[in-house]
Every structure is written in C-alpha cells, then in structure tokens.
Design goal:
Number of strands: 9
CATH architecture: Alpha-Beta Complex
Structural class: alpha+beta
Strand order of the largest sheet: 6-3-8-7
Number of domains: 1
CATH class: Alpha Beta
Order of helices and strands: EEEEEEHEEEHHH
Radius of gyration: 16 Å
Shape: globular
C-alpha cells in the first residue's frame, strides 16, 4: 500500500498523508512526476502501459506518484528506476516546469541517457514494452490514439524544444 503526502497549493508538504486511491481532501494536492528520457540521437524513451493499468497498451513517458517522505526529484529517480531500470542521480534531472490540476501538482523532468532498448528493465504490472522514438513518431502515435491522451498535451507543453527540432507545425507547441 502506497502512502502519499498531501501538498498545499504552493507545492509544500502539508504534513498530511493519504493512501493511494483515497479521495484527496479539498484544498490539498498529490505530487506527480514525469521524466522524459532522451538519448544522444534525440530520441525519447516511451514505455507501454501494462494490461492491468488504465489506458492499457498506450505509450507514455515515465512517471508516477511521489511517495510520502520523497521530494519530487527523489520520486522521479525512483519511478525511472522502477519502471525502466535506468539509474540516474537527482542532479542529472533537468527541471522542465510543473502544472497544477484539480487535485495534483505535476512536476516534469528531462534526463539524458543512452540505453539500448533491450537493456530496459520493465516493471511487471506497470509497463510491458519500451522503445526509443523520434519526436515526430511520438506525434504520429498520439494522432493514432496510441498514447495516453491527457499526457500528450502535457508532454508537448513541457518539452517544446524537443518537438520544435522535429519541425512540427502543431499550433499547440
């Protein structure tokens, strides 16, 4: 059972916690993190959600909930390790902004790492495949409804340089 810290609107821990899946009290927020892993060829790492998950079979970047007692950076390092087997330090994470939604604060990071796809270690029950894609291919997957729908806009918003390099003419970048 995961225990999650509750945060105030300014992103500070409130000292209160909830069990994962419990309703978040009004005026409090959970902290989520996403990590875009980019290789030296300019490709981004995508993992596919396992059949047990909501949006099963859809592609996404690495992410999840920050657990009680963790900072956003610590949660990002842990999620990347758990879901892909890629080990990084907090110092290697490049902050790419944050977004606030109804009941969560979402922090975005980028990390640069060259790891062959066959060396990616997947987390059973979370991910069932991984692949490196060009940013333009990510956009194609999105248009084909093969990515997690609400993640796509967040990725475009928080990693705009990656998509400008691919020559995208989308107006929402």
């Amino acid at each position: 059972m995961e225990i999650l810290d509750l945060y105030t609107a300014d992103g500070k821990p409130s000292g209160l916690t909830v069990k994962r899946g419990e309703r978040v009290p009004h005026g409090y927020y959970l902290m989520l993190v996403s990590v875009l892993t980019k290789n030296s060829a300019g490709q981004m790492l995508l993992t596919r959600r396992a059949k047990e998950k909501k949006y099963a079979g859809r592609w996404e970047i690495t992410g999840g909930c920050v657990q009680a007692g963790e900072t956003a950076r610590q949660g990002a390092v842990r999620e990347l390790s758990e879901e892909t087997g890629i080990l990084v330090t907090e110092k290697e994470l490049i902050p790419r902004g944050w977004a606030m939604r109804a009941d969560y604060i979402h922090a975005f990071f980028e990390v640069h790492r060259d790891v062959p796809a066959e060396q990616i270690r997947l987390q059973p029950g979370e991910t069932d495949s991984a692949r490196w894609v060009e940013p333009a291919e990510f956009l194609q997957l999105s248009e084909q409804h093969e990515t997690v729908p609400h993640h796509t806009q967040m990725i475009l918003s928080h990693y705009p340089a990656l998509f400008k390099e691919c020559g995208s003419t989308r107006s929402n970048i």
